[in-house]
Design brief:
Elements: H1 2-17, H2 19-38, E1 43-44, H3 57-69, E2 75-81, H4 84-98, E3 106-108, H5 113-116, H6 126-143, E4 149-152, H7 154-172, H8 181-186, H9 189-208, E5 227-229, E6 235-237, E7 247-254, H10 262-277, E8 285-289, H11 291-325, H12 328-352, E9 355-356, H13 363-388, H14 392-422, H15 427-455, H16 468-473, H17 481-498, E10 504-505, H18 517-527, E11 536-540, H19 543-554, E12 561-566, H20 575-590, E13 594-597, H21 605-629, H22 633-638, H23 640-653, H24 658-684, H25 698-701, E14 705-706, E15 715-722, H26 729-742, E16 747-748, H27 749-783, H28 786-810, E17 814-815, H29 821-843, H30 846-869, H31 877-909
Parallel strand pairs: 1-9, 4-13, 10-17
Antiparallel strand pairs: 2-7, 2-8, 3-7, 5-6, 11-15, 11-16, 12-15, 14-15
C-alpha cells in the first residue's frame, strides 16, 4: 500500500512540476493522431468473412470453394405479374439495368432454348426415345432410302400434305412398299398417338387462344420441381402460394467479389432495388433480397445506429454530468481525455490492424461509455479535496493518492473484460478485446494526465463550495439495513427463479428492423418455398461422383435436407443408356429426306381450314375404314387421341377470324422454323457423338460445374440446403456430420455460418470465465482481505442474476450482439463495488463513503448506462438488445453497490 501511495505521489509531482512539457507532448500526439486518421488511414473491414481467422481450417475450405465457383451468395429478384409477356419484358429490363453495375458478374434469369435445342432430344424419356427411333426407322423404310430435300411451306402446307397423303392411302387401301404389316403392328402406336394428340392441343392453344406453344416441355427436370424454365426459357417459379398472381419469375444476380463486404453489398443491393423499382408498375410486383441485400441493410442500419448512438451517448453523458455537477467545465475536462485518448487509440489501431471489423466498430460507444467513468471518480475526488483546502499541488497529490488506486483498479477490471475476449479463439472477439483494451488503457492514461492539467485552470477561480464537514457528518441510517437487504434479496430470489437456460439466437436476419424491404422480400420468397439462402456444398472431380453425392445427400431425408441442387438437374437422365438410342435415331434421320421448313409470305386461312377439315374427316372416317380393311383394327383404336385432337382443332379454328388465324399461323411458322433449325444439328452429328456439358450454356452450368484450368482440376459441386436454419446449432451439427460422412471436405455458407455461431458462443462464454478469473485475481491482489473481496463481488453476482432474470422476464434473447454483455458485465459490474469498498477502507465510515463516493458511483454508472442505453433506440434489433442487456446489468450493479453494499458494511462493522 505504501509503495502504491509513493507511486501516485511521484506521479502527482510530475504533473504539477512539468505542465508545459506534458501539455505540449499530449497536444502533439493527439494532433498527429487526428491528422493521421483524417487521411483515411483507418478503414472499416465490414466483411462478414473477417470475423474469423482466414487460416481457420473451416474458413480455408470455404475460401477454396469460393475460389473455384465464385460467390456463395446471389442477389435474388422475384417478379410477379398476371401477364407472362409483360413479365418477360420486365425481367429483360431488370437484367439490362443490372448489367450496367460493374460489380455484377452475371445475371441468370433466362436460357437461350434455341441455342440448347441441339441437345433437346437427350432430355426425352428413354421410353419415348425408343418410340421415336422405331418411328424414324419405319419412315426410313417408307422413304426407300430417298434423302432428297423436301420443302414444306409452314404448318398449312404440312396439314395439306398430310391430308392428301391420307386420302391417297385410303384410296389405294394398302401399306407403302417395303413396310411389313407385322412391323407396323409392333410399333407403340398408342403412346405415339397420345404424344401427337398433345402437340395438336398445343397447336390449338396457339391458334385459338393466342398462346405460344412450348416445344421443350419437360426439357429440364429440377430435383424438387420448385424452379424451372418457362416456354421462352425464363427462370420460372413452379410452386406458387395461394395468393400468387398468374406468373412468377426469378433473377439471380451474381458477383465474384466479396458480397458480404459492405463495399460490394451496398452498391449491389442499391442496383438491384433501383432496377426492380423501375418495373414495379402495371400489375408487376418486384421483391429484392438475398444475403448481400440483407447484409447491406444490416450495415446501413448498424452504421446509422452507431453514428446516432455515438452522438446520443455523448449527449446523454454530457446531460448526466450537467445534472450531477451543474458545470460545463466538468463536462469539458471529463470529455477531453476521452476524445483525445480515442483519437490516439484509433491511430495506433490503424498500425496494428489497418481497419476496424464488424464487431470492433462499436469502439466509440465503448470508450465514451466506459472511459468517461475514470474522469467521474477523479473529478469527484478533486471536488472533495478542493473543499478540504490547500494548494493545487496538495489537492492533486491527495486526489491521486486517494482516488488513483481505485480508479486504476476499476479501469483494469474493465480492461480485463476485453483482455479476456482477446484470449479467445474467435477472431472478431479477439479483435474487439485487443482494440477496446488498448483504447481504454490509452483513455485511462489520458485521463490521469490531461484531467489534472485541465483542473489546474480552476485555481484561478474560487474553490468549489462543497462543505466537507457537512459531508463527513452525514451518517448512514442503519435502521434501514435489514429492510434494504431484505427487499434486494427478495428481488434477487424472484429473478433467480425466473432464470431459464440461456437460449442463443444467432439468426442475423432477426436483427433487421421489422418491416424492412429485404426481410419482407425474403418472407415472400419463403412463400414460394425458396426462402433458404445459405447452403452447404460437396465437390467431386467427376460427374458420376457428383451424382452419387447428390443421391447420398437426398437419402438423408427431409429432416436433414430441405432441397438439393446439382448438375444432375441440368444434364439428361440415363445419358449412358440413351447413347445407343441416340446413335440409332441419328442414323435413321440421316437416311431420311432432308426437310426444309420455309415461311410462306402469306397464309390462306380459308384453305387451311378446309385442309384441316379434310384431315380430321380422314382420321374420323376414311383411315379407320382402310385399316379395318387391312385387318389392322387394333391400330385404328389406338389412333383415337389424334382423331379427337384433330376434331377439336378443326371445330375451334372455324370460330377464328381469317386475318387473326393467318397472323397466328405465320407467327407459329416463324417459331417452328427457328426451333427446327436449332434442333437439326442434333441429327446431323456423328451417330456416336455423346452428350457433353459443353453443349449447355455456361451460365446454366457454372454454379455446379467448373472445367479444368491450368491450376485447378475439373470440379462438380452439389448445393445442399439444410432443413433447419443454419443458426440452430443442434440440427446443424447433425447436418454437418452427415455431409462430412459423404464428403469429408464438405463446406459452404451454411456450415461456416453455423460454425461461426458456435465459435462465437463458445468464445464469449470462455471470455466470461476468463474475465471472472482475471477480475478475481486482480481484486484479491488489490484488496488482500477475503471479506473485502466477497463484498466487492456481491453487487456483481446479484446484478448478474438480476440481468439474466430480467432478460427472461422481458423476453430478451442472447444473440450475436448482446452475447458480448457476458464478459463486459464482469468488468463493468465490479467497478462500483470496488470504489465503495476502497473508499470505505480509506475513511472507515459508511456515511462518508456514500456521501463522497456514492454520487461518483451513480454518475459513473449512469454515464455507462446512458452510453449503452441509447442503443435501445437502434433500428438494428441486435444492437438494441446489446444496449438493453448492458443497461439492465449496469443498473442492477449500481443499485446493489449503492444500497446493498453500504447496508452490508453497516451491519458488519456496526458503525455509522
Amino acid at each position: 500500500m505504501e509503495r502504491r501511495v509513493r507511486l501516485f505521489e511521484r506521479f502527482a509531482r510530475v504533473l504539477v512540476n512539468h505542465p508545459r512539457v506534458i501539455t505540449l507532448v499530449s497536444v502533439s500526439l493527439v494532433a498527429a493522431s487526428v491528422v493521421w486518421l483524417s487521411l483515411g488511414k483507418l478503414g472499416i473491414n465490414a466483411s462478414r468473412s473477417s470475423v474469423i481467422d482466414p487460416n481457420d481450417p473451416e474458413q480455408q475450405l470455404f475460401f477454396g470453394y469460393l475460389e473455384r465457383f465464385g460467390s456463395a451468395h446471389d442477389i435474388v429478384v422475384l417478379l410477379e405479374g398476371p401477364d407472362l409477356d409483360g413479365l418477360h419484358k420486365a425481367a429483360d429490363s431488370v437484367a439490362a439495368e443490372l448489367a450496367k453495375e460493374p460489380l455484377v458478374t452475371s445475371t441468370f434469369y433466362k436460357v437461350d432454348l434455341t441455342g440448347m435445342a441441339a441437345s433437346a432430344p437427350w432430355y426425352m424419356p428413354l421410353s419415348e426415345m425408343k418410340r421415336l427411333r422405331s418411328g424414324l426407322e419405319l419412315a426410313k423404310k417408307v422413304s426407300g432410302g430417298n434423302t432428297a430435300t423436301t420443302a414444306v411451306a409452314g404448318i398449312a402446307d404440312l396439314v395439306k400434305r398430310t391430308a392428301d397423303g391420307l386420302e391417297t392411302f385410303a384410296e389405294d387401301g394398302e401399306l407403302p412398299s417395303g413396310v411389313p404389316k407385322d412391323e407396323v403392328d409392333s410399333l407403340p402406336v398408342k403412346e405415339l398417338a397420345t404424344l401427337m394428340g398433345d402437340r395438336l392441343r398445343e397447336l390449338e392453344a396457339s391458334l385459338v387462344d393466342g398462346k405460344r406453344p412450348f416445344a421443350y416441355d419437360g426439357l429440364f427436370s429440377n430435383t424438387d420441381a420448385r424452379v424451372g424454365l418457362d416456354r421462352d426459357g425464363y427462370l420460372s417459379v413452379l410452386q406458387k402460394p395461394s395468393d400468387a398472381p398468374g406468373h412468377a419469375m426469378l433473377i439471380q444476380v451474381r458477383s465474384d467479389e466479396d458480397v458480404v463486404d459492405e463495399k460490394v453489398a451496398l452498391p449491389l443491393a442499391a442496383a438491384g432495388r433501383t432496377a426492380a423499382d423501375r418495373v414495379s408498375v402495371g400489375g408487376i410486383k418486384s421483391w429484392v433480397t438475398g444475403v448481400p441485400v440483407l447484409f447491406a441493410e444490416e450495415r446501413v442500419t448498424l452504421t446509422r445506429d452507431l453514428a446516432q448512438a455515438g452522438l446520443l451517448a455523448t449527449f446523454a453523458t454530457i446531460l448526466i454530468f450537467l445534472v450531477a455537477y451543474r458545470s460545463l467545465w466538468f463536462c469539458l475536462i471529463a470529455f477531453v481525455p476521452v476524445l483525445a485518448g480515442t483519437a490516439v487509440a484509433l491511430a495506433i489501431v490503424s498500425f496494428i490492424y489497418g481497419s476496424l471489423g464488424l464487431v470492433s466498430s462499436i469502439i466509440a460507444v465503448t470508450l465514451v461509455g466506459i472511459g468517461s467513468d475514470f474522469a467521474v471518480h477523479l473529478l469527484s475526488r478533486f471536488q472533495v479535496e478542493r473543499a478540504a483546502g490547500g494548494t493545487y499541488a496538495d489537492v492533486t497529490a491527495r486526489t491521486m493518492v486517494g482516488a488513483g488506486p481505485p480508479v486504476l483498479m476499476g479501469a483494469i477490471t474493465s480492461i480485463s473484460s476485453f483482455v479476456a475476449m482477446a484470449l479467445t479463439d474467435f477472431r472478431a472477439t479477439q479483435e474487439l478485446g485487443v482494440i477496446s483494451a488498448l483504447g481504454l488503457f490509452i483513455v485511462l492514461v489520458a485521463t490521469f494526465v490531461l484531467l489534472p492539467m485541465l483542473e489546474r485552470r480552476r485555481t484561478l477561480k474560487p474553490l468549489a463550495t462543497l462543505d466537507a464537514d457537512n459531508s463527513s457528518g452525514w451518517t448512514w441510517p442503519s435502521k434501514i439495513d435489514i429492510p434494504v437487504m431484505s427487499v434486494l434479496l427478495v428481488i434477487t430470489i424472484v429473478l433467480a427463479a425466473a432464470i431459464r437456460p440461456i437460449e442463443f439466437n444467432f439468426d442475423s436476419k432477426a436483427f433487421l428492423p421489422e418491416g424492412s424491404a429485404p426481410v419482407i422480400a425474403l418472407n415472400r420468397l419463403t412463400d414460394y418455398k425458396l426462402g433458404e439462402l445459405d447452403y452447404a456444398v460437396t465437390q467431386a472431380p467427376t460427374l458420376e461422383q457428383s451424382i452419387a453425392q447428390r443421391d447420398a445427400v437426398l437419402a438423408l431425408g427431409p429432416d436433414v435436407v430441405a432441397r438439393v441442387e446439382s448438375i444432375a438437374d441440368v444434364v439428361p437422365a440415363e445419358a449412358a443408356a440413351k447413347a445407343s438410342e441416340v446413335a440409332a435415331i441419328r442414323r435413321a434421320a440421316q437416311a431420311l429426306p432432308t426437310l426444309e421448313l420455309t415461311i410462306p409470305p402469306s397464309v390462306d386461312a380459308k384453305a387451311f381450314r378446309a385442309d384441316l377439315q379434310r384431315l380430321a374427316s380422314a382420321f374420323a372416317n376414311d383411315l379407320p375404314f382402310t385399316l379395318r380393311t387391312l385387318g389392322m383394327d387394333k391400330l385404328s383404336g389406338e389412333l383415337e387421341p389424334v382423331k379427337e385432337a384433330l376434331a377439336s382443332l378443326a371445330k375451334r379454328t372455324a370460330t377464328i377470324d381469317d386475318a387473326l388465324l393467318a397472323q397466328r399461323l405465320q407467327r407459329l411458322d416463324t417459331d417452328l422454323k427457328a426451333a427446327f433449325g436449332a434442333v437439326r444439328p442434333f441429327f446431323d452429328l456423328p451417330p456416336e457423338r455423346a452428350f457433353s456439358l459443353s453443349d449447355l450454356p455456361r451460365d446454366f452450368t457454372s454454379r455446379f460445374y467448373q472445367p479444368a484450368t491450368a491450376t485447378a482440376p475439373t470440379t462438380f459441386a452439389v448445393r445442399i440446403y439444410p432443413a433447419h436454419p443454419p443458426e440452430d446449432p443442434k440440427p446443424m451439427a447433425v447436418f454437418k456430420a452427415e455431409l462430412r460422412k459423404i464428403e469429408p471436405q464438405a463446406t459452404g455458407a451454411a456450415i461456416t455460418y453455423a460454425y461461426f455461431a458456435v465459435q462465437m458462443n463458445q468464445s464469449l462464454l470462455q471470455s466470461g470465465l476468463w474475465a471472472i478469473g482475471i477480475v478475481l485475481i486482480l481484486v484479491i491482489i488489490d484488496l488482500r482481505r477475503a471479506r473485502d473481496v466477497v463484498l466487492v463481488f456481491v453487487p456483481l453476482v446479484m446484478g448478474g442474476i438480476w440481468m439474466v432474470g430480467l432478460m427472461n422476464v422481458l423476453g430478451i434473447e442472447y444473440n450475436f450482439s448482446n452475447v458480448l454483455a457476458i464478459p463486459l458485465i464482469v468488468g463493468l459490474g465490479i467497478d462500483s463495488g470496488l470504489h465503495v469498498v476502497h473508499r470505505y477502507n480509506e475513511c472507515g465510515r459508511v456515511g462518508l463513503t456514500v456521501a463522497t463516493t456514492g454520487r461518483a458511483v451513480v454518475v459513473s454508472a449512469l454515464t455507462t448506462i446512458g452510453a449503452f442505453g441509447v442503443l435501445v433506440f437502434a433500428q438494428n434489433r441486435g444492437t438494441a438488445a446489446l444496449g438493453a442487456t448492458l443497461a439492465i446489468g449496469v443498473t442492477a450493479c449500481m443499485i446493489l453497490a449503492t444500497l446493498m453494499l453500504p447496508a452490508l458494511l453497516s451491519r458488519l462493522d456496526k458503525r455509522p
